[in-house]
Fold Enoyl-CoA hydratase domain-containing protein 3, mitochondrial.
Amino acid sequence: MLGISNFYLNLSRRFVSTGRNLVKIEQNEESKFMTRILMNNEKKRNSLGIDMIRQLQQAIDEIDLEKCRVLVIGSSCLKVFSAGHNLKELTSDKGFDSHQVIFDEFTKLCLKLRDLPCPTIAEVHGLAAAAGYQLAASCDLIIASNKASFSTPGVKFGVFCSTPGVALSRNVSPKISLKMLFTGDAISADEAYLHGIVSQVVNVDESSENLSKKVKEIASKIESNSKHVVALGKKCFYEQFERPNLNDAYKIACNAMVDNLKYEDTQLGLKAFASKSKPIWNHSDKKII
Amino acid sequence: MLGISNFYLNLSRRFVSTGRNLVKIEQNEESKFMTRILMNNEKKRNSLGIDMIRQLQQAIDEIDLEKCRVLVIGSSCLKVFSAGHNLKELTSDKGFDSHQVIFDEFTKLCLKLRDLPCPTIAEVHGLAAAAGYQLAASCDLIIASNKASFSTPGVKFGVFCSTPGVALSRNVSPKISLKMLFTGDAISADEAYLHGIVSQVVNVDESSENLSKKVKEIASKIESNSKHVVALGKKCFYEQFERPNLNDAYKIACNAMVDNLKYEDTQLGLKAFASKSKPIWNHSDKKII
Amino acid sequence: MLGISNFYLNLSRRFVSTGRNLVKIEQNEESKFMTRILMNNEKKRNSLGIDMIRQLQQAIDEIDLEKCRVLVIGSSCLKVFSAGHNLKELTSDKGFDSHQVIFDEFTKLCLKLRDLPCPTIAEVHGLAAAAGYQLAASCDLIIASNKASFSTPGVKFGVFCSTPGVALSRNVSPKISLKMLFTGDAISADEAYLHGIVSQVVNVDESSENLSKKVKEIASKIESNSKHVVALGKKCFYEQFERPNLNDAYKIACNAMVDNLKYEDTQLGLKAFASKSKPIWNHSDKKII
């Protein structure tokens, strides 16, 4: 905890306006284009109860998209990113209609992250289990500490991780997914990287600050690119990814390329490239024609 | 051979009722919920001739699904899991209609494994080649010894491994698949793990028993979960995996989650979790509503 | 440069008949069934301007498919495979219609490589960036030196690598793809192999000839197989790969298998296998029925 706290000592912090403060929003002053949403319920291991889900949705909806170029989803404690759904909400006495609401709302949250124009990074220091993994996997990148672990253990107490399995199976082969899903065994961050489940592993043996530093470094790289170009690219990526037909996928991507070239920022970038200077973006969606 | 034989010394064994005994069924007494089907034709390297295919189908059909919670597909010899189709059955004098039957029946066998309610594990000690690899890949997990190897060598004698390529391409990138398919070169178990072709590699340098021990250990973990919850999860996994559209996949999985929560066993599991005790399952498909 | 030059010292070389010589075609005398098309514009880092694209298309169209069994796409210089599109052609003053032509023609080139009956190998010694990576990924295999690197850096100067992203996302998990696409950072050949982006990495620390030697060795293996069997297998692979439904994919592949067995060459191969001799192919598409 201390490491991350110190690192963000000078951050202006505001809270989603609820009495519960399950979610903390950090607007980094150094990097004003990065928004960090931290799950802040260590006691309940950041369990994704309906309140946490709704507060995360709300926090995302409140992001100033004019300004924000990278969204980081993390945890305010080191031990756990999130342990998944709140199992107390899944008992039969709560009613199956309320279960449906929970899974529908959580799916909305996951798709909301995918559909955000800005790239999203899950910063995973500790355990990301079940829906906790699914939340991380719904971000574009996962940057994990070497102490992180990933699991889909629901089957052990009778709730198969079917929805986390959707995210898992889009990132790793069925042979790896199904071993995790059937046994509930966790895998280490290094194994997760080996299998393409995470984007990068950061060694935090010496200092717990390393992970946030690396995330900030990656975010800075992304922020230094033209905002609307990145948004166009992200949208195209997920659109073509759903097309098994290669020709269809290329049609979508070719249209995106041609559209991309119409941005004023893109033409600025090409001029900068030609003159070997650094592009100074407008970050506007203004098009030349 | 001896290692595995000793390890299963006390097993009750029965045979599929044919004169040929191409397939051996072992019902482990220690682990009464695990069924092992062993290909038992070392002389012909467990070639998947039509008789072997039919005996495997029959053996699977005869599984007591009331009891069985994990099916292991293995070989009664260490050197070879299976070398693939019986090439003698693929000559033109056998008639092309009979070729069609062979591939149709083998596809049925592969889909039968996928559609079984219980998880399936391929235990691969030696060579899994061509249709032999396809059979292994049609199991949910592949647990391989470090001495195992995997190949799709059909092209070398004029029969491109098109059907094994279907299984291969669902587990590993085209760049790796096509190198295997075009050259026929085998890859080691470690490489196979690196690429997500196998779920786990077990070091058997010291003892040939290690592989079966590890498979049994994984099977025990799976068996300790509620049978119908596992079946529901397995079915959902493969259903959503065929949906490239993420929203569609999540709809399928959300429905599975809500359905999952209706199992009596699931509610038992949630109560056990809340009281930090170990769930004692009914293994029934009884639902609360 | 010298290494590769020496290695191909005795090659007969001819050039695509244009005044610009952006593309060099090498017909290896030792291996008369392998055609090498080398991008030959070191000064412009083999940029894929419309002329280069058209010369590559033309070079492929001119391949003697009666003879050619493997096509290698490479570079005549060691430092760069290709740095991607010619950014000077993407400025607004060239007109957006001409941009559309560039992306359409480049897509045609990529699909042409996939649709060629013979296997294609990208031999990547240096940098493969943006459309340069896409070109390499459009070959069936990528064999890379340990000095190679791969990147999709377009976003840095305002042109998101949307079309290269199509190729990338078909070979590696979104978590890895999106990190490359959003940051523009290059990955090493070893990382690329780890993630399934390349088929094999060849250590060239001691000699720059190693890569071409290894490519030739792999090509020789492929050439020693029956040409039309390989073509049938390649076609089937990409066809079934576009089918998310496993049953559909197996239907396509079963039909391919049965069709495969009708080739005279296949029946020769099966006879050779039975008599433990090496098959001597006709390399014809003659069928028995």
Q: What stands out?
A: Chain B has eleven helices and eleven strands. Residues 227-274 of chain B form one domain. Chain B has two domains: 2-223, 227-274. Residues 1-19 of chain B have pLDDT under 50 and may be disordered.
